[in-house]
Amino acid sequence: MQSITLIQGILLAVMATIVGIDFWLEGLFIFRPIIVCTLTGIILGDLQLGLLAGGLTELAFAGLTPAGGTQPPNPVLAGVMTTVIAYTTGKDAATAIGLALPFSFLMQYVILFYYSTFSFFMNKADKFADDADINGLIKLNILTTLIVALTYGAIVFLSAYVAQDAMQSLVNSMPSWLTHGFEIAGGILPAVGFGMLLKVMLKKQYIPFLIVGFVVASFVQYSNLLPVAVIGAAFALFTYNLDKDRESLIVKSNNEGDDLGEGI
């Protein structure tokens, strides 16, 4: 078990502020857990832990996207706290995912609160729009974004640095059966997230590739996942070239049909 220093806590807060702005605006998508966990690992001085936690957390959140009024857990707090909990308590990343979920839900409730309260700014925004006051609209957007950004920084600082002793005591006081339950839940979450993603993306024409990839990944021993990724890229390139050839034949056939029609 290790402790987070004040400097690390401040750096985590600054990082959360930046990625929180990106999550609010959905611009560069640096708020994804695989990036947030990696950045957290770098700040804590344990890049390997950050990469491991990022891979597991990203899989868990791969299929979690907002649908209508339903909001999934916050990926920023999930990424930060999964790495922080694993770092400070000595638990593995799979267990830390389950322990980080309350922080993720807390941040999402705060964001939902902002979604509601920021509606009071709409009258002001409408007035700025009617008056063609561009500067007023810019200032209003900066104000609301700044509120969200500072909230991310404050919650991460309080959760990761201020509350770390209490968090360590809570985790260490848990009975072994409860900790094992969190470990199992954390191991299941990546499979659930990937399954939700496949539910959207999987088409019948891609099932053969899924079967081949599953067999290769399950029965061929690799020291890392790079060969699997290369095989996937080869399949993607093969499908891309096949589709391009098919499109070329269709265009050529249409052109020949047009020439024949003109001749007649």
From TrEMBL:
TM helices/strands, residue ranges: 6-25, 34-56, 96-121, 142-164, 184-202, 209-238
UniProt-annotated location(s): Cell membrane
PROSITE patterns registered for this protein in UniProt: PTS_EIIC_TYPE_4 (PS51106)
InterPro entries, per the entry: GatZ_KbaZ_carbometab (IPR050303), PTS_IIC_man (IPR004700)
GO biological process terms held by the UniProt record: phosphoenolpyruvate-dependent sugar phosphotransferase system
One matching Pfam family: EII-Sor
UniProt topology in membrane: Multi-pass membrane protein
Protein name, per record: PTS galactosamine transporter subunit IIC
Originating organism: Clostridium tertium
Underlying gene: agaC
